[in-house]
Amino acid sequence: MRTPLVSAIAFALAGLTTAAFAAPAADTSDQLATTQLPRGVRPTHYDVSVVPHADKLAFEGKVAIAVDVLDSTSSITLNAEDMTFANVTLTPVKGKVKFAAPKVAIDAAAQMVTFTFDHAIPAGSYRLAMDYTGKIGTQANGLFAIDYDTKSDGKKRALYTQFENSDARRFIPSWDEPAYKATFTVDATVPAADMAVNNMPVASSKDLGNGLKKVTFAQTPKMSTYLLFFGVGEFDRATTMSDGVEIGVITQKGLTSQAQFTLDTGKDVMKEYNAYFGVPYPLPKLDNIASPGQSQFFAAMENWGAIYTFEYALLLDPSISTQADKQEVFNTAAHEMAHQWFGDLVTMRWWDDLWLNEGFASWLASRTTERLHPEWHTNLYAIATREGAMSRDAVATTHPVVQKIDTVEQASQAFDEITYEKGESVIRMLEAYVGPDAWQKGVQAYIKAHAYSNTVSNDLWKEIDKAAGKPVSTIAHDFTLQPGIPLVRVESATCTNGSTTLKLAQGEFTRDRPDKQAIAWHVPVIAKTIGGAATTTLLENGSGTITVAGCAPVVVNAGQTGYFRTLYQPAQVKALTGNFAKLEPIDQLGVFADVWSLGMAGLEPASDVLDLIKVAPLDAPPQLWDSIAGDFNALDAYYHGDTKRQAVLRKYAIARLSPKFAQVGWEAKAGEEAPVAILRSSLIATLGILGDTKVIAEARHRYETDTMPAELRKVILSVVAEHADAATWDKMHEAAKAEKSPLVKDRLYGLLAQTEDEALAKRALDLALTGEAGETNSAALISGVARRHPELAFDFAVAHKDKVDSFVDSTSASRYYPRLASGSLELSTIDKLQAFAEKSIAPTSRRDAETAVTTIRYRNMVRTQRLPAVDAWLKKNG
Prior knowledge:
This protein is an alpha+beta fold.
């Protein structure tokens, strides 16, 4: 699954029959898996038949489940939500035992149904069958509907499913937990003119008359319930072949041309992954289904053989899509395809080990993007990924990569920066430590050993240890079973006889607990002098030394593969600042990120980052200038409401960024590299936020004269929307209403929430309640307002909670409201947030609320304790 929180730019055998899936060896590793269901009954196969009524937002279903009763019992309990049941029967596969119709007991709170029979069910194999009814939702949970405009054929409605993490129970009464793997055969009665889609190809289609047809799909391999998919609508499909697998993209009618890049990507990535894993993709086809709309929880979902992706993360519309969009489309497709092995073929046993799915998919997508598109220079984005993880990992409410999950809501919260971005960063570090060949060998052994079954993290470490020939698991356990970030202090650097010896000490970096007792880690450290060769050591027991060749300034964490922060002595910081232009690009970004974070945490002067910005050369990597722009944005936000001091910062920031923007220019140059195109938009956006009158005036001119190149259309509209008056806002609103392309329409509505004007922001909030922007877009409107007006957005959402709840998918429920407030600088917001959590969020699911509280306190601390040093620096250097 690809989440909206995770943006990394900030990425076989045809004709298999059912018999091909019967080969896997028996697996017993999941017998003790965590479960919320009784252990005594296990499903092996589901025959599912559904009749959706899209107009009524309801469906009818029949299911026959092949089950093995392991121990005699008089009842069978499974997961179900928002269902009614009829004609429940239990039939033995062998023998003549008969069971009367059972009593049906629904536990809505536990999302379970129990069928209790009139006498004990002996151990054996049975067929549990029933008729049932369910609901079709308007948010991405279970079977749901998306309504969308078309350019020439009015409004349409399509149906899709989204089951991760625990919503298959809304579609099928089932053992809806990852360790209960089974095979599935699905058939559906749908409009004859529509296309129905499943994980597997269509096996047969029968015309039923009255405008309906019955579509039956081939049987799936053994898999977890959350990976099942069904969709139906007025679709088009384009295909290609790769390593004997049919790769497809499915879109609304007429849009397959916008998915050609995704189709080509799928073809290339399939070959790459077949080679990397050493296990061919085992299904006959792999579709990627594009859907209008959006979710507050995810952007794409790795259903086996039928990846579901929102249009903004899959299609490239020539009128508005950018180079950044193109790279994100590639990375998203590569991420979801990685899941076809890491997650689908081999699945974590329980949500505790979700990172085995998500961290690995993120890492492999980044690796594959670098390999297949080196011209994008995406290796430098590894720093942004690491910083996203560390921002979350540096506060008290963080958690280990491998975490304890007890409830459905906790499982939903596990899809966060620690699971994805820290998981990816730790894998990157471990691969660098053991070497890419040994790492790949271990991964291949893991995949082959556990195909079609479930695992825990130690199953992977066992194979990596064996392949590497050294105890990688010791390091892996430190970084996955413990929360937090190591802090490597450079106590001293002594040059003797042409070599420099560093004395290192390991502590812990936190943003909110300066007196915390440090956790101990085994930390792989790579260091080198500028221009010298790298040396590696493993920092153990809290201290150590490393000797590197040369006497130039030293970079610790050279290459930036380590997941730790480096704190240099002041003289060392000064030396690195003086030689900043000589650092490797990845080290420029890493040092810059460390200095920013350490300064904001009070471990070195907060103004040190401005010293680095001052000496950054114009020819530094575009990604560094993007980071500089980001830090100016962050500082500007900390000054919010203090216009006099903010004006001083803005004057300096504009003066520092303008020469770089003059070099980049408004117009793309022939042959320019992809990072330059991305930087152009970043600089326009940042200078617009900082109030650069020239940039704002040019953006308005291009908007009013409709001279916006596609690559800059979004950023120009964003600058105009941010500084809009009422008349401009109304004009943009009318454009959004008139737009017929869902991908563009969604983005135009999102602009209305970006305004600085509080009165217009209130209008955007009121608009969200009408549902005019679309049922899945209204929550995003409120979130958009929260970026500039967090208190306003949070208060509004709480005041209209009953209505807002209908716009938020249930998997986002416990995090949506806290994240609206998290950008606040007002300590008074904490009381409101805590009161909301006490009233509306289960005590076991308040991690995001507690994190928002911590974030508000941190932001307030930076404002009061760190900005004076920035003021002093600006007074001296401005």
